[in-house]
């Protein structure tokens, strides 16, 4: 990970973003632009000092940057943790000295797209356009700051990258197009998942209410309320898990058919542009299709405004009822799901360390009063079915271990 590799990958991903926009695959355009922008921001920071991109508390990248990566006890570079896109933007803006074209508030929606929020952007073309335009502005300003040749960076889009309408009109390359049509298939599967989830949730609600009424004549009003809530919870979660599982399997099949999966295990190198792009594509497809499941739930929520479905899930989420590791009495390992936003399970080489929150603090968000130190190897969401099973996917999705423990506690 250095300035040269970051700029090369930034160029590759920005061209892939504009390729996707030209083909009408707007969700992919947003997410490819996101990772490309992150790379060129880190390239600028590496020019000043590679240590600027190391995440706070991470020693691995520091040792590698200082030439001691082969020393005993130093973790491999594949496990190094670097700062996220928003932190990279804020730090880069300092070195740009007023030449950054947008401020943090304007950049944040674009940063959110890199972190998984833009999986639903394909539903709103105007939001997609604005996000990409912001990202392209930032990328171009940093490209100029680095003194990179525009033709070498933007390729066939050199004269049109700033105007997405012109990008859309760029003719396809001559000769047969061997690029798999992955994006439209992924969008079709996302919409199909949404339709199935909409139907499944509707049936689950009617079934849950029906089951709760079977013995209502013999129950007190308080007990009847408890039974109704439990029946609805069980029916709703069952429907989501079935649909989430189907969506996840569909995503895996599509990615295997198009040669994206399986990825090398372990991740061979952060400097391999091909592996990185495959990781990013895999996460994009999986998040897009899994988000269709929750989109179906939200559709039903709009039709049944007297039944707060999303609130039910949030309540279950906060209680930890759906976190599978709690059922066995183990420590609860969870992270926010990049597809649906609820709590998903993480697994790997993890250890619990007491958190820094006051014992009586009402705002402590750490289950059991501990934080996680270690390496996340896989992720599984019980709500939408999103499954990430490779370190490359984990890193690309921005799902990392928390590292809040004092250094003396490591």
Give the ordered list of helices and strands.
HHHHHHHHHHHHHEEEEH
Number of helices: 14
Widest beta sheet: strand line-up: 1-2-3-4
Please outline the major beta sheet. 4 strands, antiparallel
Q: Distance between termini?
A: 25 Å
Strand content: 5-15%
- Gyration radius, to the nearest Å? 23 Å
Structural class: alpha+beta
Percent helix: 40-55%
**Number of E-state strands:** 4
What is the arithmetic mean of pLDDT? 80
Low-confidence stretches: 117-122, 325-329, 405-410
Global shape? globular
Structural descriptors:
410 residues; alpha+beta; four-stranded antiparallel beta sheet; 14 helices; 4 strands; disordered C terminus
Give a description of the structure.
The structure is a single chain. This protein has 410 residues and is α+β, with helices and mostly antiparallel strands. 55% of the residues lie in helices and 7% in strands. The protein is built from 14 helices and 4 strands. The chain has a 4-stranded antiparallel beta sheet. α2 packs across α4, α2 packs across α11 and α9 packs parallel to α11 (273-303). The radius of gyration is 23 Å and the shape is globular. Residues 117-122, 325-329 and 405-410 have low confidence and may be disordered.
């Amino acid at each position: 990970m250095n300035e040269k590799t970051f700029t090369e990958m930034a160029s590759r991903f920005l061209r892939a973003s504009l390729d996707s926009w030209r083909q009408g695959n707007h969700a992919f355009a947003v997410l490819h632009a996101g990772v490309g922008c992150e790379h060129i921001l880190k390239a600028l920071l590496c020019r000043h000092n590679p240590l600027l991109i190391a995440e706070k508390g991470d020693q691995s990248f520091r040792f590698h940057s200082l030439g001691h990566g082969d020393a005993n006890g130093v973790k491999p570079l594949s496990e190094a943790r670097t700062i996220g896109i928003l932190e990279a933007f804020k730090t880069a803006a300092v070195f740009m000295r007023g030449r950054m074209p947008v401020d943090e508030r304007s950049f944040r929606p674009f940063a959110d797209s890199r972190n998984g929020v833009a999986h639903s952007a394909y539903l709103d073309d105007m939001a997609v356009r604005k996000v990409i335009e912001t990202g392209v502005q930032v990328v171009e300003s940093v490209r100029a700051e680095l003194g990179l040749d525009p033709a070498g960076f933007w390729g066939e889009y050199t004269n049109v990258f700033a105007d997405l309408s012109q990008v859309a009109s760029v003719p396809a390359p001559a000769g047969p197009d061997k690029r798999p049509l992955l994006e439209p298939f992924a969008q079709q599967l996302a919409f199909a998942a949404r339709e199935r989830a909409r139907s499944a949730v509707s049936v689950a609600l009617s079934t849950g209410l029906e089951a709760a009424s079977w013995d209502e004549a013999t129950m007190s009003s308080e007990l009847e309320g408890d039974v109704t809530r439990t029946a609805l919870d069980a029916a709703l979660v069952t429907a989501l898990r079935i649909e989430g599982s189907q969506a996840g399997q569909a995503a895996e099949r599509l990615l295997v058919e198009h040669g994206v999966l399986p990825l090398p295990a372990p991740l061979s190198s952060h400097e391999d542009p091909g592996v990185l792009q495959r990781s990013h594509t895999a996460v994009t497809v999986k998040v897009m299709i899994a988000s269709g499941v929750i989109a179906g739930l939200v559709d039903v929520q709009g039709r049944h405004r007297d039944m707060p479905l999303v609130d039910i899930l949030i309540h279950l989420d906060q209680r930890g009822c759906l976190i599978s590791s709690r059922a066995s009495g183990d420590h609860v390992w969870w992270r926010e799901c990049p597809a649906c936003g609820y709590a998903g399970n993480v697994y790997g080489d993890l250890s619990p360390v007491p958190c820094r929150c006051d014992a009586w603090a009402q705002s402590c968000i750490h289950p059991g009063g501990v934080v996680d130190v270690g390496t996340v190897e896989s992720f599984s969401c019980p709500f939408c079915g999103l499954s990430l099973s490779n370190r490359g996917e984990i890193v690309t999705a921005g799902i990392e271990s928390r590292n809040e423990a004092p250094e003396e506690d490591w």
